[in-house]
Amino acid sequence: MTRPQPFEVLTRFNLADFGSGVSDVAALRAILEAGGCVRGVRGLHAKVFLFGDARAAVTSANLTSRGLKGNHEFGCVSEDSPFINACRAYFDRLWQAAAGSDLTAAQLDEWNAQVTAFLTSGGRPEREAGLPDHGMVVDLDRLTPTVTRGWPAESGQAFVKFFGRSNDRLPWTFQAFEEVRRAGCHWACTYPKGKRPRQVADGDTLFTARLVKDPDDMLIFGRAIGMAHVEGRDDATTAEIHARPWKAQWPHYIRVHHGQFVAGPLAHGVRLSELMDALGANAFASTQRNQRRGMGNLNPRASVRQKPAVRLTSEAAAWLTERLEHAFDIHGCVPAEQLAALDWST
Q1: 229-243, pLDDT tens digit by residue?
Q2: Distance set, CA 283 to CA 131, 184, 201, 252, 279 (Å)
C-alpha cells in the first residue's frame, strides 16, 4: 500500500465534541500516523478539501460516514484555478493563524484519558460543559483580507513579474518611472516567445520587479491588476515590436490595469531578498508545495532563476503588500498624469 504524501488538516480541538462523538480521537491518531499535521481552531465549521493544485471541494458534509453516505448534503468540486486558489488562500491564512497548535500523540493520549473518564462517569451534561477546548482563537477580522488604498480588487493569486536579465541589471538609482516607460508595464507585462502565460486569471495582482546590481537583487517597484491571457489579443503587434524591439523575443502579454509605481529611484521599492529571507519556503507557491510534500526544491532563490514570473503564497502577498504600501507612504507614487503621458495599447 502506498504511503500518502504529507498533508495538513484543520479541525476543532473541543473535547466536548469528542465526548459527544462528533469528533474521534482514533481518527486524529490515524492522521498523525499517516504523516499528517493537524491544527485546531475554535468554532471552525467550514468544510474545504484541497487536492494539491488540481482540485478543491467545498461542501456542507462532515468527513464522517453519515456525512459522506447517509445525510443529504450539498457542495461543489472544481478544477478551476481561481476557485482552487481562493480556497487555498483561505486555508493558508487560517493555517498560519493556528500556528502553535500542532497536535502531538502525547496530547491525544491525554485527551483520550479525559474523554474516557467523562464517558465512564455517565456522560453527564454538566461534566461535558467542563471539557476544555484546545483550539486556537482566530481573529476573523484579521483573517479576512481587506482592500486598502482604494485598490480595485482583492485577487485570489499574486505574482512577482520580473523585468531585466542577469546580464543587464540596472543600478539601484535608476528611476522607477523610467523603467515603467522602458518596459511598458503600466499596461502590459511581457512573457518570452513560445511560453504563453496561462496561470494568471482576471483580477490577480502582479507585482513588478527589476533586476538590479551592486549589490545584486530584485526590487519590487509597483503593482497592477492582471487580466487572463487571450491568444491573439495579447500578442505584440508589428508596431509594438518596432517601438520596443526586445518584444520580438518577449511578445506575449498579461495586460494590466490600475498600475501603481513607487516615485523616485528603484531603491525606494521592496527587496525580494528580504521577502525570501523572512518567509523561506513559504515565499512562493512552488516551494511551499514542495515543503508540504516533503520533497523537491525548498530554496526560494532557486525558484526565481531564469523565470519570467513566480507565484506568491498568500502570506508572501500580504507581506509584500504591507511593505510596498509603506514605500508608497514614504516616497509617494508616480503621478497619474505622468503615467497618462506614456504610450498605451489601443
Answers
A1: 999 999 999 999 998
A2: 39, 27, 20, 26, 5
